[in-house]
């Protein structure tokens, strides 16, 4: 984008747009991929450190399929609704007033937990690359991250499209470089620890990584000029997400082994490839964190605006004050060291997300088919909306979450003994 075009876009944003900004198909896919991969792609290898690659791959497949189905449920519901409602608004309309508060709590917990993890990871990466203190790294990351959030949906979509493209190139280079290393060992992928206490908690991290259900209405708003692009963008975006989430841990594990994986995987993975790779691997890490920050932060801003019944897209002054409410608490959490680790920051958002997302998308779809105020331009395939499909979603999300909590707090064996009689 030329400097003059950037200036015109910025001025246009300041003046406010009379209409919702349109997203291209690539921008929509980039929003989804960018939101998904963020801290997840950097931390998910470490999540598998005590279990192994194949247990991680199992949950990536299960979580990816179920997440895609629930996202398609929400997509159809948005296409049956004239108003551009966020997930909180859809919950109120199609479930009831209580759902408004439950969904908003879920959005807030997920957003604050994720944004805190992003800030902490950014500080770690900046420290390792440039040698700056962790707190300064978090502050330096905060400036461009919050700045683009302030400018709104089109700026987020355009920014993510550019950054995701760069990330893809970097990722391909790193993966190719990994498999040209003489000391890679594919036997590392077979190293597994069949302990439920290690395997089950992976699920909540996977749920967190795939928790882009919240951003589907935001994408629908950008695709209002061509709604049929929405389900296609979801399918392609989640497929790209799965591929990246599987390839990064695979590359790191075959090169380093499970025991050497760092909490932010690019730190150890880059070093294992070589000095040149250390820099670009961590640039990839920063870009991944940045795109997730934009996607999830933008969704949270719009949800708050919906709660206030205000338009934050065309009023940058209002958007600025909402931005402070969204972006400052996570920064303070990091600076005050409230979260000891990235895993701690994203664990409970994954738990809350799993509980809410096991029921709400199903109820929203079901009631939108009865009470929607417009004909949907796209409908979920029948085999995805059968009783069996819905029951599978609920059972997997709820049971995996309960067992994961039990594993984390050391009473999994007792719970299994009680269930088995």
TrEMBL record:
Coiled-coil intervals in this record?
Answer: none
Which UniProt keywords are present, listed alphabetically? Cell inner membrane, Cell membrane, Membrane, Transmembrane, Transmembrane helix, Transport
Q: Which GO terms describe its biological process?
A: amino acid transmembrane transport
Compartments where located: Cell inner membrane
Q: Name one Pfam family in it.
A: Trp_Tyr_perm
Q: Name one GO cellular component term.
A: plasma membrane
Q: Which residues cross the membrane?
A: 23-45, 51-74, 94-115, 135-156, 163-180, 192-212, 233-255, 275-297, 318-339, 345-365, 377-400
Q: How does it sit in the membrane?
A: Multi-pass membrane protein
Mind telling me which InterPro entries this protein's record contains?
Amino_acid_transport_2
Q: Please report the name of this protein according to its UniProt entry.
A: Amino acid permease
Species annotation: Helicobacter saguini
């Amino acid at each position: 984008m030329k400097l003059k075009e950037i200036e015109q876009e910025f001025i246009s944003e300041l003046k406010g747009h009379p209409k919702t900004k349109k997203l291209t198909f690539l921008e929509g896919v980039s929003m989804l991929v960018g939101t998904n991969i963020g801290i997840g792609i950097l931390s998910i290898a470490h999540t598998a450190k005590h279990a192994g690659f194949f247990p991680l791959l199992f949950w990536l497949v299960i979580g990816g399929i179920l997440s895609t189905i629930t996202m398609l449920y929400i997509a159809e519901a948005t296409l049956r609704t004239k108003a551009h409602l966020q997930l909180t608004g859809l919950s109120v309309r199609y479930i009831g007033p209580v759902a408004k508060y439950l969904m908003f709590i879920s959005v807030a917990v997920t957003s604050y937990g994720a944004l805190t993890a992003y800030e902490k990871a950014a500080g770690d990466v900046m420290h390792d690359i440039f040698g700056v203190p962790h707190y300064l790294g978090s502050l330096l990351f905060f400036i461009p991250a919050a700045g683009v959030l302030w400018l709104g949906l089109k700026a987020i979509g355009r920014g993510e499209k550019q950054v995701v493209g760069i990330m893809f190139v970097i990722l391909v280079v790193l993966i190719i470089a990994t498999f040209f290393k003489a000391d890679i060992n594919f036997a590392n992928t077979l190293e597994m620890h069949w302990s439920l206490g290690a395997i089950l908690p992976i699920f909540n991290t996977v749920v967190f990584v795939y928790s882009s259900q919240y951003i589907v209405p935001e994408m629908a708003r950008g695709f209002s000029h061509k709604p049929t692009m929405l389900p296609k963008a979801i399918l392609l975006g989640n497929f790209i997400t799965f591929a990246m989430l599987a390839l990064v841990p695979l590359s790191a594990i075959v090169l380093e082994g499970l025991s050497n994986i760092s909490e932010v995987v690019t730190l150890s993975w880059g070093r294992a490839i070589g000095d040149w790779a250390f820099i670009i691997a961590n640039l990839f890490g920063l870009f991944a964190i940045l795109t997730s920050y934009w996607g999830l932060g933008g969704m949270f801003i719009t949800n708050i605006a919906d709660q206030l019944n205000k338009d934050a897209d065309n009023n940058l002054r209002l958007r600025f004050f909402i931005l402070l409410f969204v972006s400052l608490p996570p920064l303070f959490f990091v600076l005050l060291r409230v979260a000891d680790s990235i895993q701690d920051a994203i664990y409970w958002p994954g738990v809350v997300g799993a509980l809410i997302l096991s029921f709400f998308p199903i109820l929203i779809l079901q009631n939108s088919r009865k009470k929607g105020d417009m004909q949907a331009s796209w409908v979920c395939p029948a085999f995805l909306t059968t009783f069996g499909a819905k029951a599978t979603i609920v059972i997997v999300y709820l049971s995996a979450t309960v067992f994961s909590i039990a594993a984390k707090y050391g009473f999994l064996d007792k719970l299994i003994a009680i269930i088995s009689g």
